[in-house]
Amino acid sequence: MSAQFEFAAAPKARTPYFVVSPRRVLSEILSKGWVESTVPFVAFLCVIFGVGLTSHGYFTIDNLRNLALYGSDGGLVVLALFVVVAAGGIDLSVGSNFAMSAFAALYCFHVLNLPVPIVLAASLASGAAVGVVNGALAGLAGCGALLTTLGTMITVRGVYTLASQGQLVAISSSARTDEVWDWIGSERVLGVPVNFWALILVAVAVLVMFRQSRFGWHVLAVGGNRKAARHGGIRVKATIFLAYTLGGVIVGLAGFLYAARENAVASDTGVGMEFFALTALVVGLGGFVPGRGSTVAVLIGFATIYILNNALLNAGLRGDFVQLAMGAILIVILSIDTKFRKHKHRLLASTYVDPVAFEVDAVAGAKGLLPGEIAAKLAGADILAAGLIDGPEDVILDADDHLFCGTRDGRLVRIAAPGYDEVETFAQIGGRPLGLALDREGRILVCVAGMGLVRVDRQRQVELLTDQTQRSLFTIQDDTTIRMADDLDVAPDGTIYFSDATKRYDIESWGLDLLEGRPNGRLLSWDPKTRKTRTVCDNLVFPNGVCLTHDGRHLLVASTWTCSLLIFDLADMRAGPRVFVHGLPGYPDNVNRASDGGYWIALAGMRNPVTDLAMRFPGVRRRMTRAVAPTHWLFGNLNIGGVLKIDAAGRVVDAYWDEPGGPLYMITSMREHKGALYLGGVTNNKIGRIRLAAADPSWTGPASYWGKAER
Amino acid sequence: MTLEGVLGPNNRLEEARGVPVEAPEAVSVGADGRLLFSSGAAVFALRKWGEAPQAFAQFERPVTALCSSPGGLVAVGTLGGALRVCDESGLTVKGWAAPELAAVADALFLSEDELAVVDHGYTADEPLLSVAPWDDAARGKLVALRRDGAPRVLAGGLHCPMGLARDGGGALIVTEFERARIVDSSGETRQAGYPGYLGRLRKTASGYLMTCLSRRDPLVEFLKTEKGFVDAMKATIPPRYWIGPRIHPEFSPDFPIELGATRLFGAIKPWAPSFSYGLVIELSDALMPVGSAHSRADGRRHAVSDAVVWNGDLVAVSKASGELLNLGPTGAPA
């Protein structure tokens, strides 16, 4: 074919540097995890301002130090309860355990005269012992957490009362002093009380545990869904047991710090503490929510309750009135939070789809070639492997004429030449295999939606090459994960170029991307030498098929919703794409080489005047996604598709259609191989084949890319 | 708009016996017991199901309505709003003046000397199915004509009336295509909320037969609230590409689909949303549905324009498949 394409003469394609949309910003912020803590945080700020305005000198350094000094052990108890609740349990015995641990510390220090480190160990052991009992009963034996810890709460309180009454005189009459003991009890480091440092350290440890550690993740999994965690192979009972034990140890530490500060215990030590801790937790988490590891939110909840309680008492209110006020304020905070969460989901659901006005170029260059205007050349196609495969989005033939395609159930299958009637699983990949390519060594490269880029060698070994790229500069939502790897091709230097069709939708809801009409996709590259993934061009409109030009110098990328083909210069990818073909009569999917120097374009569906018009009305599309069930959404006609043939300069020269009700309707891929064209469709269960009368009968794709000498 | 209960989907229309007829539109049972049916500009008569039809009458333009009187008269409406009255042998009876009508959608003899006609108001060159859903103007009317007398408008301001029947008390009731409701001559709604775009209404011994030209569609109903979009569609796109109910189930590259209508493995899902559908609803005396016959999204006997009870059998006309269908004895299916 003599036609040549002049890259520099083609119009530049518009690819924005970033997408600005208030609705998207809102929806992305709403889908962030930390939004969950908005109401507790606002409540905290209200309490701070309220207290700051009503009581003079509350937020002075001295008072803050005092608050830190007396609040730390309460904070630790909240964290202990938090760990247990995160695992799906509850611990009512924290108050009794706290008193018992404090008593253990005092007894060891004043009566037994043990050194402080041993005292600490004894205190921790005392707390852990209660935790172990709770864990053994509620976790290992499967007794109810509420009744178990109610039992230990009463029992430990009884033991504590008996023991403390017996030793109270001995403890209070002891004259032992110890530097370390006093340092822990009342000294400061960098202006902050020592026991507050302990709270900070434990809080950081819990935070890291829930974010980074295997145990922390297991705890959250068990709390979130015990059954699913068990099915996931997590040792559920052991995890719960350990969570109770860890909670007990933290309570033990709190008791120790209390003992060091107060040097005394009373009969009411720790009484009502479980309710205080539970309240703080509920305010922080916005309810009694197992399986959530928001440490910061819990600390905010604790600070809110602690300061509120403290300020009300400071203001000279009577204790019972403080309780009444606290209860009322808590109910208000919780009900606002519950409403907020409920509406947050609704708001997110109604703001996620974010359509934009979008002008598709008028149909051009295919006059006289549209369905009905020419004979339906696909009507006489051979049907291969009918009913044996599910969803061959792409098809490819290797040098030995065997046919490969991906299936909806995550397999790469081989259909053996020459009969093409036996289907064999070549490799089990997972995800949704879409585009295929062969590299120089004859290995099959697969774009897998939901996974990334995968390579299957001739020994059928599956290797995930990449599933992440660089994060875009201006995004709120982390978009490093490759969401819908769609099609690929290999440059002469071995670099793999592949499309990530949309960053916002999964394979099951890709249709929403058309309704949105925004540049949500990107072109990525993977370098085999460095094994690095790079975003070559961001903000493309549903980049789909990728094809290296015959001269190996340019890259064609189909932009499905714009009904056009873009072209990149491999020598200067930074310059961005230019428009190769525009105004196609349908939605282009994969693009592949033809034997005569031109290209084949698969049309997955046909555009039509009403859908094109709807693209100019973003409000209509947005309201439609809210008011109409998805099955009734207006869409391009995916029940008719075909194949276009273009020459090397991008002119449409031929078209292949099936009859309107024929079996080859939504064509997503086609490969020319030895004088025949093989056709695949993502919703079909068969592969079509037509003989091409004028084509070179010896031409194959692998030879076109890698020469005949290679395999 | 959902099809549930007695309106639940079945395949009665698909399974019915059928006789191919070119461009059928209306059927009527003559006074002599013959079944009259239109085929393009001709009317044929059938003595018994399975026999060859006999030519009854031939007209210049396609037939749009057909009705018979107990005394043996047959009224025939043709495209463009013309009306002719024939006797039992098919010869034109003189004296029935043709009033000024845009179209004759349906007709009914009130007596041997008086005829009621519904005019939906759309001329022959306006594709009614495309246009009517997006038209707010109520151009339809119900007209009574007497032999040798001036026409009398019984009701105006009807929105695309398509069918006409007498209720149990003898009052005239009219189906409105796009409003999917039945109104009487005073314009009062008798029953609304049917799941289809309504066609003709025929009195039977136990109630009524009502045909639907298509199923009502949530997308079309939604777009009716999008005035800007619809105005742009009307202004820039030829009516044949407009979204709306259709006669034929065929796919066209010029016409959109609804997302759920995507074929799987090449097959059309029977439950897929579709712009064409075959539906006949049996109504009680109180106009409540008591039975239905369907041709679903994967069927071809869509756009049922008329149905009558003939010799105890339900006979319907499918415009999409070009067939006269015999569904067997009437009555709600078991």
UniProtKB/TrEMBL annotation, chain A:
Domain Strictosidine synthase conserved region, first and last residues per copy: 486-563
Pfam families membership: BPD_transp_2, SSL_N, Str_synth
Protein name: Ribose transport system permease protein
Segments crossing the lipid bilayer: 41-61, 68-90, 102-125, 137-160, 190-210, 240-259, 271-289, 296-315
GO molecular function list: transmembrane transporter activity
InterPro entries referenced in this protein's UniProt entry, alphabetically: 6-blade_b-propeller_TolB-like (IPR011042), ABC_transp_permease (IPR001851), Strictosidine_synth_cons-reg (IPR018119)
Predominant location category: membrane
Top-level taxonomic group: Bacteria
A single GO cellular-component term on record: plasma membrane
Automatic annotation (TrEMBL), chain B:
Protein name in the entry: Strictosidine synthase
Organism this protein belongs to: Roseiarcus fermentans
